[in-house]
Design goal:
The chain is mainly α. Helix content is 72%, strand content 0%. It has a domain of 250 residues: MetI-like fold (Orthogonal Bundle). It is built from 27 helices and no strands. α14 packs antiparallel against α15 and α20 crosses α21.
Amino acid sequence: MSTVVSAEPPANPWRRTRAFLALNPLLGLLLIVFLILGILILYPAWILFSSSFMTESGELTLQWYIEAYTDPANYQAIFNTLVIAFGAAIIATGFGTFMAWAVVRTDIPGRRIIEAASIVPFISTPFIGALAWILLASPQTGLINHLWRTLPGAEGPLLNIYSLWGIVMVEALYEMPYVFLIVSGALRSMDSTLEEASMSSGAGVWDTTWRVTLPLVLPAILGGALLVFVLAAEQFGVPAVLGTPARIRVLTTSIWDTQSVFPPKYGLGASLCVTLLVITMIGLWLQRRLIGNRSYTTVGGKGARAHRVSLGPWRWLVFAICGAYLLLAVVLPFATIFLSSIRTLWTHDFRWEQLTLENYRWVLFDYPITQRALFNSMFLAVVGATVCIVFCALVSFLSLRTRLPGRKALDYLSMLPMAFPGIVLAVGLLQAWISPPLVLYGTIWILFIAYIARYFPYGVRSTSATLVQIHPELEESSLISGANWFQTFYRVTLPLLKPGLVAGWILLFVSFTRELSASVLLYSPGKEVISVAIYDMWEQGDFQPLSALAFIQIAIAMVMLALVKWVTKVDREVSV
């Protein structure tokens, strides 16, 4: 008697995978998020790195590194980049920390005005600041130098903005708000009873500040310094307009040179990008090394009280120092850009007949690039910032509110673009999407991807900072009541995240409208943005129309900030 054994069909791995994902939809979503981030970040990074070791025919080679590191000009560019990055980081960190301490911890007059005005340089750009300082401190036509020559015995220019120190000064002035925001936030969350104990023990204001306050907020100070270092090292606009006349090369302008020739030197540009990337990653490593093994827990509970120290007569000196920064970073540059935009010619001789609105009319209606640049910038800023902040909220939810495997890797991956300078990311995206199977170069979508990939970490940090303050019991109650994870995320998490979403959206909107380093490489005719249009005008020497378009860019950002603030205020009043 024979036994018949029915053979079971072989297991289908894809069917089992689908069944598993059906039971664990969040895991499937996590995989999709990993895939998107891989396309946004890892794929361009891999293309960039591999192309630095490939010949045009696809063979392995060290040719590009040999060419890069046997050229003395590139060594000078690396040296200049490091000098500018360190110089800007030191100056911006010093001023930013000082002003944050003055506004949050002292009784100086006009604190609210100083705090509000300190954020204004962020709305503008270092590039526009550099253009304003050309009008102020150019050796020949700068207004400050002209006033200097009118003094008895004065010879030659007082300031020369076309110099290494000029680049450092401008970048420090316009990157300082990052340090101010980071350090002021840390000071507000710090338990002020520690300072009170120091002063009760006989220490003075300055001694307490130096020995207690500053060491306790050292992580924030170092974090701000690192951010400025990276931003200064990756800056393209300022070295381009201030360094080119003085033949001062940095890594970003050297990379631009390799991509702006025909045919482009992709391999050489990639090798220089890897050099710049190594510099920024060393900065990240140093920061973790410096603060990784120290404890800085200073946040108090509900009993913690904000305390302001009385500076006595010194408060006027502190106020004057803060005012000096605002004069250099806000008042003089903004006034100069505005005056240049309403004049027929920039001279030291001011006459009523020189005043005109013709520059605004020409920019808005006659210059062919402006209208499409405005449309493209607004599309990228509004739609791009909205898509990005919702995606950031999803990433924060998956990394902070689930126990899925890989959630910590997701958090690290979302922060990876912080180490990628804008021009490095742009070169990677350019090489990744300029050839089949998917050609995005020449479309608005390559800029869309570049903006989201570059500023994604800022949105994640904004949403994560708010999400950690929301108790998970609210979401658990929704799940217990029968809602699935999507309904909970849409109806509970997102509404509770609104403050973080609004703050992150504003940050992304402003960043998208002012971006230049990546845009200048990735745009194509017909796909210009405002920053590229301003850069083109600078290359043509049209300073008056340029000033008008720059002022329009600043006005758009300020109007959007005011509108969002008004909408959120009305929403709060309705909720109450």
